[in-house]
Amino acid sequence: MIVVGVRHPVTAHDTWKAVYDTAHPGTFCAKFARVDRAVDDPNMVIVVCGLDSVEAASGMLESPDLKGRARFLLPSKRTGWTQEARIGGHKVFLRTGEYADGTLG
Do 44 and 38 contact (CB within 8 A), yes or no? Predict the structure, then answer.
């Protein structure tokens, strides 16, 4: 799976989120998608989604809908921590990542 993050400044988060909910990255056949907000700027959003292949990720990033927006591919290898827990007999893993510049991913 390829994980892609798109960083996007918005003028009004609530208005943007209402539009996003009607046409989110699932339209690009994403397996999952989530929206994060920057702590220091609530109008800076980061959309993270997982796609099946590099071709699908490239197709999404080359989409006219995303042209001109800041974007980056999340590296497949990065430092971080994995925490394992058991809930109701199921193993659950929480994975954090840290990039070379110190930002979390």
Answer: yes
Cα 23 to Cα 49: distance, rounded to the nearest angstrom: 14
Q: What angle do CA 10, 15, 18 make, to 5 degrees?
A: 115
52 and 11 part of one domain: yes
Q: What is the CA radius of gyration of the chain?
A: 15
Question: Looking at 1-105, which runs of residues are DSSP E strands?
Answer: 2-9, 32-37, 44-51, 71-73, 82-87, 90-95
pLDDT of 68 strictly over 50: no
**Beta strand 32-37 with 90-95: parallel, antiparallel or unpaired?**
unpaired
Residue 71 confidence class, pLDDT cut points 50, 70, 90: very low
Q: How many structural domains does the chain have?
A: 2
Same domain for 60 and 105, yes or no, is no
Domain of 32 in residue numbering reads as 2-74
At 62 the three-state DSSP class reads coil
